[in-house]
Amino acid sequence: MMHNMKMNRTxxxxxxxxxxxxxxxxxxxxxxxxxxxxxxxxxxxxxxxxRCLLEHHxxxxxxxxxxxxxxxxxxxxxxxxxxxxxxxxxxxxxTTFLFVAPLAKLxxxxxxxIWLVLLSGFFLLGAILMWQLGExxxxxxxLFLICILLLESELTFAxxxxxxxxxxxxxxxxxxxxxxxxVMVGVLCLAACLAIKPHDAGLVWLYFLMAGGAYRxxxxxxxxxxxxxxxxxxxxxxxxAPHWLSDWSANMATISGPNGLNNPGPGSVxxxxxxMxxxxxxxxxxxxxxxxxxxxxxxxxxxAMLLIWAATTLRSRFSPARALFALAAIVPLTMLVTYHRxxxxxxxxxxxxxxAMVWAEGRAIRWVALLVSTVGIVMTGEVPxxxxxxxxxxxxxxxxxxxxxLQAVVTRPASLALLAMALFYLWVYLRRAxxxxxxxxxxxxxxxxxxxxxxxx
Length: 457
What we know:
Elements (H helix, E strand, L loop, with lengths): L1 H34 L5 H14 L7 H10 L9 H8 L6 H10 L3 H28 L3 H13 L2 H6 L3 H17 L3 H14 L1 H14 L1 H28 L3 H13 L23 H5 L6 H25 L4 H18 L14 H9 L4 H14 L3 H11 L7 H12 L1 H21 L8 H14 L2
C-alpha cells in the first residue's frame, strides 16, 4: 500500500511538472501571438479563408480574400512578404473549411479564443497520453523529454497553426489503438488528422494500415471518413468557386517558388528565422539551391529509408512495443520527406515512449537513444532555432565543400538532427523486428524484408 501511495505521489508530481511546462509555453506563445497585428497569424488565414467561403467568395483568390478582410474592418495584410503570403495566399486543403466553419461564424476575438483553447487542450492531452505510455518503462526519461519539447512549443501556440490540433489528435489516436481503448474515438481523431494535415499524419496512418488485422480495419475506417469529408468539402468549394483549383495551384507555386514562404532554400522568406523549413531539402539546398537537385536527393534518401521501414513492418507481427518503435522511426522521417516546420515537429512526442523502452533495457545503447532524442527535440524547438539564427546571422564560412558543410550544420541543425534520429530509430526498429527469430543483425533483417517485399506480387 505504501508503495502504491508513493507511486501515485510520484505520478502526481510528474503530471504537475508536465502541465507546468506546457502552461509556460502556452502563456508565452499566446502572448507572442496576440502581440502580432491581428492576432494568431496562421489562424487568421484559416478563419478569414473560411469566412470568405461562407460569404460565397473564392478564398483561393487573393483579391476576393482581401475584400473579406476589409469588409470585416481589418487592414489589408500586406505589410511584409511573409505576412502577405501567410494570410492572403490561402493554401490549406478544402477539408479544413469544414472544421473551421463553426468558428468562422463568430466574431474574430471569440473565434480566436476558442481555437487557442481547443489547440492547447488537444496538444496537452496528447502529451499527457505519451507520458502515460512512456512512464511504464522509464518515468524520468519520459518526463524529461516531454518537458523539453513542451517548453519549446511557443510557435505552436503563437501562430495558432492547425498542426497543434492535428498533432494532439494524432497522439490520441495512437494511444487509443495501442491501448485498445476508445477505438472509435481514435478512428475519428485519425480521420480528422488526415483531412486537415495529411502530410503530418499520413505515415502514422500508413503504419496501422500495414500492421494488418484490426489495425488495418481501423486505418481503412479512418480513410473512409476522410474520403466522405473530402468529397463534401470539394462539392462545397467547387459550387462556390468553380475555378478554385487553378487559384490554389497558383498560390502553391508562389509560396513554394524562389523567395517563397515555403521554399526550403537559403533565400526563403523564413529561411533564417525560428520558423524555418526543417525538411531534408533545407539542408541539401545549402550545397545546391536547385529544386531538381535537392528534391531528387531528398526523395532518394527518404525513399530508401521508407522502403526498408515498410518492408520490415509488413514482415513483423504487431505488438504494442513494436508499434512504438515503428512510429519512432517513421515520425522523424515524416518531417524530412516533405515540407514541415518546427510546430509540425512536435509530433516527435511519439518517439519518446520508444526512447523510454530503450533506456529501460539498461544497455549502453540507451545513452545513444537519449542523446539522439534530446538533440532531435531540442534542435527542432523554436527557442534553440532562434538562438541559432541570432548567433549565425553574421557568420561567414569559407567557400567550397567544407564551408558548405559547416553552413549546413550551423544553419540547418533541425534537418540534420531529424536525419540522425530517423536513422537511429530505424536501426532500432530493424533489430526489434528480428528479435522474435533470434539475434539477427539489423542488416540481415533489412535484407530479408526488402527481398520479401520485392517478391510480393
